[in-house]
Structure formats: structure tokens, C-alpha cells
Amino acid sequence: MCSRLAPVLLVAILFSPGSAGVRAQIPEKPVNLEVLPDSMTTEEVIAVMRGFTAALGVRCQFCHVGREGMPLDSFDFASDEVHEKEMARGMMRMVERINVELLPEVLDHHDATVRIQCVTCHRGAARPVMLEDSLGAVVERFGADSLVAVYERLRERHYGRFAYDFGERPLVALAARLSAAGRHAEARSTLELGARQFPESAGMAFELGRVYEALGERALAIEQYEKALRLQPEHQGAQRRLQELAGS
Predict the structure, then answer these.
(1) pLDDT in tens, 49-61
(2) Do residue 104 and residue 136 come from a single domain?
(3) Closest CA to 228 of 238, 220, 236
(4) DSSP 82
(5) How buried is 68 (Cβ within 10 angstroms: 0-12 exposed, 13-18 middle, 19+ buried)?
(6) Do 106 and 203 have their domain in common?
(7) Which residue of 105, 158, 199, 206 lies most exposed, with the fewest beta carbons within 10 A?
């Protein structure tokens, strides 16, 4: 069971509590292991925990009572006070079931080369949320004006890692979601950001043209469709839209 649970989502490791007023000490043997086998040594538990922190991009205090930068022996690993610890236990059980019960059934009992790990979903982020969902939440709460600033901060922090996809797809997906809801002005802000990030993308130019057209900005739409054709002369979507606009 230890080998199956080692890659799972967060920590549920609790060491014996210290007395009041005395710093908690890491004992020679961990106790109160509700998911991991109680036969594990302290060193084995710590190795699992390091895997969790790397997969989620967090530190010990994400699940345990303690302060950033303080020695580990000042942490109260036995406490269940931090809600994320119980969430971790549930996630560990979930991943165990997926790997042991569900994946072999889906793979028809072939060699299970696919295994779910913390990093499978979290990709170095505490919350396993795709970029378009994170940016969508920003637009919902703060408006499109905050979109660019948040995107740039996320890109500065995470670009080159695999927490987020900083390609064209997330921005196009978010814009499509906003347009479908009739929020063309916010879709415009999203795609104008995309056009600055990907100035040589025919697809981004085409999508921006469609949003301009939905907003009644005919001249700007034509400009983007023409740009799409310059970048990709066989772009059929841009060809059709230019023909339609020419005949209108």
C-alpha cells in the first residue's frame, strides 16, 4: 500500500503531540497515520511528504500547524486543525481507488503503464485549475481590466513549468466561453491579450476578428481577417468572413 499511496495528493501524516507550552518534537516513529501504513518509518513518511510538496508547489504549513521558515520540530504535525489535511486524506483514498480498482478495469487488465499521481492534476499548483478557469474567475470577480495583470503575474511565475498552459488555447477557450454568454467586450479584452502574446497566430487574429464583428466593429474585423490570411493564406474561415462582409 505504501508504494501505491506515495504519489498521492497531500499529507495526512501526524506525529505524536507534544505537551502544552513545549515545542512539538518529531518522534522516531510516526503515529496517527490514517491512510499511509502505520508500519512506515519517519524517513519514509518524510519522503512521501516531499513528493507532495513538490507536486503542489506548497510547504509543510499547507497541511500542518506551523509557520513558514521555522524549524520542523516547531510544527504540530499531530494536529488536525488545518482543513487541507483532511482533504488530503480524501484525495489519497481517491487516488488509491483509481490506481488499484478503476484503472486496471479501464485498461482491460493490461499492464497499467498509466498511474495517477498528485502531479497528474496539480502540476506544481496547489489548486488543480486550468489557466482559462483561473482567468475566468478573475474576470467574474474583478472584471476584464484585471485580466492582463493577473495573466502576466502568472506567466512570470509559472512560465516554463507545467502548472499552466501559456499557449494560445486557454485564451481562445476563455474568449469562446465569454462570447457564448454574450460577453463580447470581455472576450475582446481576452483576445487582444492573446494577439499581443501571439502576434504571428492566424488563429488568434481570426478569433479576434469574430469578436470585433460581434461587437459591430466591421473595419477592425476586416483588418484581423486580412491579417489571418497574410499569416495563413489558406485560412478558409477568414476567406469566408471577408466574402460575407464584402457582400454586406
Answers:
(1) 888 888 888 888 8
(2) no
(3) 238
(4) S
(5) exposed
(6) no
(7) 105
